[in-house]
Every structure is written in C-alpha cells, then in structure tokens.
C-alpha cells in the first residue's frame, strides 16, 4: 500500500542520515573545510567546522 511504501522510504532516509552522521563524526577532526570569512559567523549545524 501507499502507506507502507512511504514508511519504508522514511526508514531508509533515517538510516542513511544516521550512517552519514556517524561517518562525519569520525572524519570531521581530519577534515578541512574552507569557509569564507564573510560567512564564518553564520549558523552551522556542526560548530567544529569553524576553526
């Protein structure tokens, strides 16, 4: 049914996001992300990106 497919899609999206966040948490200390000074005072989901 339509509801089952939607539920399955939502569960997959949740799992993909969770796996990505776990990967990101492990990798973030070794990452270098250049953020233009003009945007460094913005709201970032992960505060560790601005060093």
From TrEMBL:
<protein>
    <submittedName>
        <fullName>Parvulin-like peptidyl-prolyl isomerase</fullName>
    </submittedName>
</protein>
<dbReference type="GO" id="GO:0016853">
    <property type="term" value="F:isomerase activity"/>
</dbReference>
<keyword id="KW-0413">Isomerase</keyword>
């Amino acid at each position: 049914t339509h509801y089952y497919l939607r539920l399955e899609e939502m569960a997959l999206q949740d799992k993909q996001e969770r796996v990505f966040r776990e990967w990101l948490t492990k990798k973030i200390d070794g990452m270098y992300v250049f953020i233009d000074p003009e945007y460094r005072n913005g709201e970032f989901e992960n505060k560790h990106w601005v060093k």
